[in-house]
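Hi team,

As requested, here is the filled-out complex form for the NAP run. I kept the field names the same as last time so the parser does not choke. Let me know if anything looks off before we queue the next batch.

— J.
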Amino acid sequence: MTKPADTLDLFFDSTKCFIGGRWVAPVSGDYLPIEDPSSGAEIGRIARGNADDVEAAVSAARAALGGEWGRMPAVERGRVLTRIGQKVLERVDDLARIEAMDVGKPLKQARADAVALARYLEFYGGACDKIMGETIPYLDGYTVYTLREPHGVTGHVIPWNYPMQIIGRSVTGALAMGNAAVLKPAEEACLTAIAFAKLAEEAGLPAGALNVVPGLGEEAGAALTAHAGVNHISFTGSVGVGQLVQRAAARNVVPVTLELGGKSPQLVFADADLDRALPFLVNAGIQNAGQTCSASSRILVHRSILDEVTDRMAARYRSLRVGPAISDLDVGPMVSARQQEIVDGFLGDLGGAEVAARGELAGDAPAGGHYLTPALLSGVTPDNRLARDEIFGPVQVIIPFDDEAEAVAIANGTDFGLVAGVWTQDGGRQMRMAKAIRTGQVFLNNYGAGGGVELPFGGVGKSGHGREKGFEALYGFSVLKTVAAWHG
Ligand code: NAP
Ligand code: MG
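And here is what came back:
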C-alpha cells in the first residue's frame, strides 16, 4: 500500500516539457509552483510553457506523422498503447500518491483514476486495428469505399479534476487513430500528465507522437488552441473557456470536441429501491469533493418520499469525513483556494434553501488546506441559482416533484445536459424517462456505471458537443475519406 509522504518522490523531472521525445526546459526559463491542496504547501515546480514551447511541440508532432509513428501499422500502435497501460498498472501506487498530493484527491479515488487510465490504454490499444471503413453500392462500373484516417496533429487541453481519466479518454483515443498529440494539462495538475509521458517513453512510443507542454491556460493553452498547425482540438473544462476555444478553432476551421460542465440530476420516483439508490445519490455528489463534471448535483425526489430521502441522505452526510488526501477519508480538500472561495460564495447565498446536513472536518486537517465540508441543501426551488448553476463542489440540492411531467421539466430546466440517473422499478417509466431527458448519458437504477471507459460520453447544450470514451470516440478522432473508383 502507498506510504504517506510530505514531499514529492517522483520518477520523472516535473520541471521539463516533453517535446519530440526529449525532456526540455521551457523556452522562457520560467516555472510555476506546485501546491498541495491538503496543506497549502508548495511541494515543487513545473515548467511555465508558452507559445514557443507549443510551437516546438506542434512541429515535433507534425514530424512524427511523417516518421516512425505515422508509418506504424495499426497493430503495432495497439501494442505500444497496451504496453503503456502495463507501465501505468505497475506504477498505480506511485501515480495515486502523486495525484493525491497534487490535486487533493483521496488516495482511493486517485488510485481508481490511475486504473482507469490503464483501462483506456487497454481498450484503445485493442481497438487500433478494428477501425474499418465500408464499401458503398454505387453506379454500374464503380467501386466505392471509405477510409478512416487520422486528423493529423491533435491538441488536448484538460482540467485539473480528473487528469488521468481525461488523458485516457482524450489523448489515448487520438493516439489509437494514429494522430500525434500535444497535451496542455491544467496548471494545478500537471504531474500525472508528465508521468504519463515518462511511461509512454519507457513503453517505446515513437518520438513526437505525444508531447506535453505544462503551463497556463492563457499562455500555453491559448497558443495551442489557436495554432494553425493543429488539426483537431479536444477541450475539457469550463463553458467560458470552451467558448474561447471554439472561437479559436473556428478561425482555423478545425473540428473541436467540447466536454464542458453539468448540473446532472438523479430522479427518484416513489417506487425506487432506496437501499440501492442511497449510496449512488450521495457518492455522485461528493466524489472528488464534487469537482466532477458529471457530479449529480440535483436530486429530484417524488414528494411522497421527500422526507425519507432527505433524512437518509442527511444521515449519510453527517457521517462524511473530510481531510488530507493522504488520509484517504470520504472527501479531500478543494483543489485550490480559488475553488474553495467559489463554492463558499454559493453557500453564502442560499436564496431560501436550508442546510439539511453537512459533513465533518477531521481534527488533523492542516489549517492551510482548502477544506470545505459537504453540504446537503433542501427546500430548493428550481429557479434558485443553486439549482441551475454548476457549483463544482460537494453540494447537492434536493428538489421535490409531483409527477413525471414535472420531473422531466425540472431535469431539463438548466442550460446543461451531461448525465442523468433515474430510479424507478417501472419499466415503462424507465423507457419514457430515458427518451425525455435531454442529456448525453442516462443511467437507469445506477449512476456512472463503474467508470464506463467503454461508454460514449459527452454533452448536449452547454455541456458541450462531440463524444469521447468508448468506440465512438475513435470516429471523432478520425476523418472519413470516400474513394470512388471507376473501372468500367
Ligand atoms: P477551465 O478553467 O476551463 O480550464 C480547463 C483548461 O483550459 C485548463 O488546462 C486551463 O489552463 C485551460 N485554459 C484556461 N484558459 C484558456 C484559454 N484562454 N485558452 C486555452 N486554454 C485555456 O476549467 P477548470 O476550472 O479547470 O475545470 C472545471 C470545469 O471543467 C468545470 O466546468 C467542469 O464541469 C469542467 N469539466 C468537464 C468535464 C467533461 O467531461 N464534461 C470533465 C472535467 C471538467 P490553466 O488552468 O492551467 O490555466
Ligand atoms: Mg497542485
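Two things worth flagging: The chain has a mean pLDDT of 97. The CA atoms of residues 116 and 451 lie 7 Å apart.

Thanks,
J.
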